[in-house]
Design a protein that fits this description.
The complex is a heterodimer of chains A (265) and B (529). Chain A has 265 residues and is of the alpha+beta class. Chain A has three helices and 22 strands. In chain B, 54% of the residues lie in helices and 10% in strands. The chains are: A alpha+beta (265), B alpha/beta (529).
Chain lengths: 265, 529
């Protein structure tokens, strides 16, 4: 049996070199967001990244089911023309969430859905019964907290601070965008995050969601998204006299006097 | 060009002439310090080239990812597709060579040789050993006796080392006692230790042994040098039954057998069922690379166990005694000595060797790493080639450029490609700051990595199938699930490529770059059957 003929090897080489030479510019253009229209026009597109998204979550883009690819804990939807697009997330047992955001060419706009359950669960943690140990431990946690830290919080490169009826956010990483705070623009200085009808007594980050806050203002505890592009989603999770909230072990607790509740989302 | 007579040659015209280069100090240079003056500086600079190129690439990708992540992403996408195209190109060669090896294993070499008179030919087989166990030496001799060839036409040289002590002498004595008379001749040589100018290792040993064999066997029997085919085997080599018939046929049909080396496919099969999974993968990766090279003869050089015309070997002064990778260097020695008129004939017929192994897992890790680092020391061919092309002045710039580029690309690829592919591909995502993390490109990079992973899995499938087809029968009593592991083991490739590909190659190249020269490290042979 003769060795692989040289002409065949050269043919393979030529074919693969041609493939490489033609494919690489196309792939790089495609990866950067360029697309070819049916009318043979090259256009620049952008995308929307929905993050996070549960397995049951369905995404709609401009009222149509979104065609995207799962990436990390979210869904990336590409081929969107520059301009305003509405992303909507639906999930069984939860209230729908939607936001209209601007898509820029070759850029990806990130959205952070916040889906409240249809029936939000406030579980009372009672001082007696089986939950006694939990009650004591959480109440002790509340008592030991430094009240000076109630109005300022830091998580990674984000710091939030409450002043009067308002909460401000500041992104510390210079030159890096934080889309939930400043959209696709680079953040500079303090940015207004939320405004309430009563003085804010406490601000806290939602567990595992740096773009969502828990705030106690007046007689309410409110969960609110930082993202002020389009409508800002929020929910009063507790109304009482002068409630406080705390996150302990990834769980949200609300205390009002001697009463203690866990908010189950 | 000068001509020297082979004392027993029938046609003097057949004695290959040598270039003037072969009489210069550059011809057998081992390292920069063997030269003086500007040549020493030049050679030292050339020694730095492979390491500088590899480190330069890695640092370049780091810096580019930090400062210009978009361009770094373009580079990485292009590199990934280059790698896919290259893998596809190689897999054509692998598939074809697999067919050819299978064909050659099934061929009737005796009948093929019937058209070529070959009874005048003699095989001189060198078996260098250091401190290997008697069983390994004996296993090799037994395989020679099991080979289908006239044993009277086989001269065997057991080449021991003085520095190995009395144990090696005892093994040699016992082998002579047991196997004398079974071959045309069997001699035992002991390479003296501490010879000035020599690097203790295989090259010095086999060069000493072959000169002894020339005097004690060939000259004594007045055998024409041109009728002798030398096979330099690692001591763990086991020849397949028709190796010498196949070699003889290729020798007789080669256009110029005295300007050719003959390279079998090294399959690291002897202990494959007992070696750890990562060692098997590393070993088979080596075999697969050699199979690919068998279909690219212009890129093939001698590696590990190989065969060569004694006349050519004698004319170039045997293997270099002052370097680590004597196996590949002998090709380039001959290439420069014969003015470029030298090639390697791929036999596409296997020999079987041991996969690196040791009694414990971590010792095996160490052995595999050290073996790969020794093989990667082959990077020292770059200064030798550059100096050779520069000083011999018989080659065109094109020839020199193509040869050096091909070799440099291979050495650079080994050290950098797995790192680029597996680790550095993520660098723009990790280091790329500013607005890069909001670009479509940023989000597409992991998707392209997924595509590359799928392409890589397809390539691994071919490798798994090829390796599986060469597996010897499992030893009795081995669980059946081990067969499944022989397939699943290929999932270790991303790890082995880095740990036993890039890292030892970078290690060797860095040492060469810094002038911290390596000695010869003989892979311990662990008889774990």
């Amino acid at each position: 049996m003769e060795p692989l003929p040289l002409w065949k090897r050269r043919l393979y080489l030529a074919a693969l070199t041609a493939f490489f030479a033609v494919a690489i510019p196309l792939i790089i253009l495609f990866a950067s967001g360029y697309r070819l229209t049916r009318g043979w026009q090259i256009i620049e597109t952008g995308g929307i990244y929905v993050h996070p998204l549960s397995e049951e979550g369905e995404v709609f883009m401009d009222d149509l089911p979104a065609q995207g690819m799962r990436l990390r804990k979210g869904l990336i939807i590409q081929n969107l023309t520059p301009g305003a697009h509405t992303a909507e997330v639906r999930e069984k047992g939860r209230r729908g969430w939607q936001k209209t955001v601007a898509v820029r060419r070759r850029m990806v706009t990130e959205v952070y859905p916040l889906l409240f359950p249809n029936e939000a669960g406030l579980r009372e943690v009672q001082a007696a019964l089986e939950s006694k140990r939990e009650y004591e431990s959480v109440m002790e946690f509340f008592a030991k907290r430094d009240r000076r830290e109630f109005l300022t919080k830091e998580k990674g490169d984000l710091s939030v601070s409450a002043e009067g009826q308002k909460i401000f956010g500041q992104w510390e990483k210079e030159g890096e965008p934080a889309q939930f705070l400043c959209g696709l623009d680079v953040c500079s200085g303090r940015v207004l995050v939320a405004s309430f009808g009563a003085p804010v007594r406490l601000v806290e980050f939602f567990p595992d969601r740096p773009e969502i806050l828990i705030a106690a203002a007046g007689s309410e505890v409110i969960v609110i998204e930082i993202d002020r592009r389009d409508r800002q989603h929020s929910e009063v999770i507790f109304a009482g006299e002068a409630p406080e909230a705390a996150v302990k072990g990834g769980k949200i607790y609300v205390r009002d006097g001697h009463a203690l509740y866990q908010y189950v989302i | 060009m000068s001509k020297v007579a082979d004392p027993y040659v029938r046609r003097q015209a057949d004695v290959p002439a040598l270039t003037d280069f072969s009489r210069t100090p550059y011809f057998k240079v081992g390292k920069a310090s063997d030269l003086a003056g500007f040549d020493r500086f030049l050679y030292r600079s050339f020694e730095m080239l492979p390491g500088a190129l590899s480190w330069g690439t890695i640092i370049f990708v780091f810096l580019l990812s930090y400062f210009m992540p978009t361009y770094s992403a373009f580079f990485i996408i292009a590199f990934n597709f280059y790698w896919v195209a290259k893998s596809a190109y190689f897999s054509f060669h692998l598939r074809y060579n697999w067919k050819r090896v299978k064909h050659n294993l099934a061929a009737d070499w005796e009948s093929k040789l019937s058209a070529h008179p070959y009874t005048h030919l003699r095989h001189l087989i060198l078996l260098p050993f250091y401190n290997e166990e008697k069983e390994i030496v004996e296993r090799n001799l037994k395989s020679l006796l099991e080979a289908r060839y006239e044993h009277a036409h086989m001269f065997v040289v057991l080449a021991g080392e003085e520095r190995a002590g009395d144990g090696a002498r005892e093994i040699g004595r016992r082998m002579l006692e047991k196997y004398s008379g079974r071959f045309g001749d069997l001699i035992f040589t002991v390479h003296p230790s501490g010879v000035p100018g020599e690097l203790a290792g295989k090259g010095a040993n086999i060069s000493y042994a072959i000169e002894e064999a020339r005097k004690r066997i060939l000259d004594k029997r007045q055998i024409a040098y041109r009728d002798v085919i030398v096979s330099a085997f690692d001591i763990d080599t086991i020849v397949y039954p028709d190796y010498f018939l196949c070699l003889t046929w290729h020798f007789l049909t080669a256009p110029d057998p005295h300007r050719s080396s003959f390279q079998p496919v090294p399959l690291f099969n002897n202990n494959i069922w007992l070696a750890p999974a990562f060692s098997r993968v590393v070993s088979y990766s080596g075999s697969i690379w050699q199979m690919i090279q068998q279909e690219r003869p212009e890129r093939l050089y001698t590696f590990s166990s190989h065969s060569i015309s004694f006349l050519a070997l004698w004319r170039v002064g045997y293997w270099q005694k002052n370097i680590v990778p004597e196996d590949s260097r002998i090709f380039w020695n001959a290439f420069f000595a014969f003015g470029g008129d030298y090639k390697v004939v791929p036999l596409s017929y296997p020999v079987s060797l041991d996969a690196a192994s040791a009694p414990s897992f971590w010792q095996t890790v160490k052995n595999v790493y050290k073996q790969q680092r020794r093989w990667s020391w082959h990077a020292d061919i770059i200064p030798y080639m550059l100096m050779g092309f520069l000083k011999s002045q018989v080659f065109s710039f094109r020839k020199a450029f193509i040869s050096v580029f091909a070799e440099l690309e291979r050495i650079w690829s080994l050290a950098t490609n797995p790192v680029l592919l597996i680790l550095l591909s993520w660098m723009p995502l990790v280091l790329g700051g500013g607005g890069f993390q909001s670009t479509v490109l940023f989000y597409n990079m992991p998707l392209f990595s997924k595509f590359i992973s799928v392409a890589a899995l397809m390539g691994l499938g071919v490798s798994a199938a090829v390796s599986f087809s060469f597996l010897p029968p499992p030893p009795a009593g081995l669980p059946r699930r081990r067969k499944l592991w022989m397939i699943l083991q290929w999932l270790l490739v991303p790890i082995t490529l880095i740990a036993f590909g890039s890292l030892p190659a970078l290690d060797a190249q860095t040492r060469l770059m810094l002038g911290k020269y390596m000695g010869f490290w003989a892979t311990p042979k662990y008889h774990n059957s």
